[in-house]
# Entry
Amino acid sequence: KNAYEICVVHGDGIGPEVCQATLRVLEAAFGEALPLRFSEYPAGAQHFLKTGDSFPRETFEACHSADAILHGAAGIPGINHPDGTEAGLDFTLTLRSKLDLYANVRPIKLHPGVRSPLRDAAPGAIDYVIVRENSEGLYAARGAGSLLRDEVAIDPLVQSRKGIERIVHFAFELARSRDGAPQGRRRRVTCCDKANVLRSYAFFRSVFDEVAAQYPDIEAEHVLIDAMTVHLINRPSHYDVIVTENMFGDIISDLGAATIGGMGMSPSAELGDGNGFFQASHGSAPDIAGKGIANPYGTILAAAMMLNWLGLRHADPRLIDAGKRIETSVTYALADKSVLSRDIGGTAGSLEITEVICAGLRERV
Ligand code: IPM
Ligand code: MN
# Structure
């Protein structure tokens, strides 16, 4: 391919700022020979306020046909549908289900130069990936739950064999292929569930075990979700790849992010067989929007994931290489130059961070 189509949706709050920063970094990573074509489409709570539509049809079509989707952030508190659900969430949740983005990949990596609130967090000590099942689990109940006579509410938790098999295979393949993590020990996939109490999680675990048997080169283990919250604080260096149900993945990925500098440092990739959707894990932070102080690192790291995913998919080493160089320049900015935004204990604004990363990239183009 000569150029890959990237559908860019800025969204709400700090979304436009972190997207602008990321587009500049992508341009700097390739110099003159940019193999990406950006097109911008609206969605989100602001767009809903203006037009009554949070996710226009044309935006969906553009996302569907693009090679990848890059998103800023979504949501404005209090901008809701009549049923009380947040209008800003429509974009992400609808994309997940309509494009069947079943694998939500959330790397939890402590970058050199960033301080962790954990006592025992030497550089390199936190470097694992949460693979969140993104198409079923408790989230499958969205729009399908029921409220009986205003007395009882029910949301079913659905786990299918097909859904579990594909996410567990995804996790084992990722463990085989990913850079970083364990030194001097075998690759490991941890199944995180609540198999001791609920049937759906026991089924998740039993299908996990069947799939794990097909990967004898990789260590497989189980841990219960409640214990997991303790382990991710006390021994994060133990983990390599963690696979878990949708809701549990939602929760522990925020917990993990808190150990590596917060949501602003945490990228997220939502992948299906045909589409990839990339954003930072943070929300739209309306309180700091427009002030130039938003942390763009998470979105920039998500863009690096996007390049890596596109590069592998299309066997295009230019993209894989550019993704690696962006990561290297992020490390340069954080560790060598100490350019830290407020949320990670510094004073740098989005523009300064972007410029330092771009300068790091230009030196290496
Ligand atoms: C996330 C977010 C979403 C979720 C919201 C925005 C619907 O918290 O991506 O983790 O709950 O999955
Ligand atoms: Mn979440």
Remarks:
- The two ends are 21 Å apart (CA to CA).
- The chain has a mean pLDDT of 95.
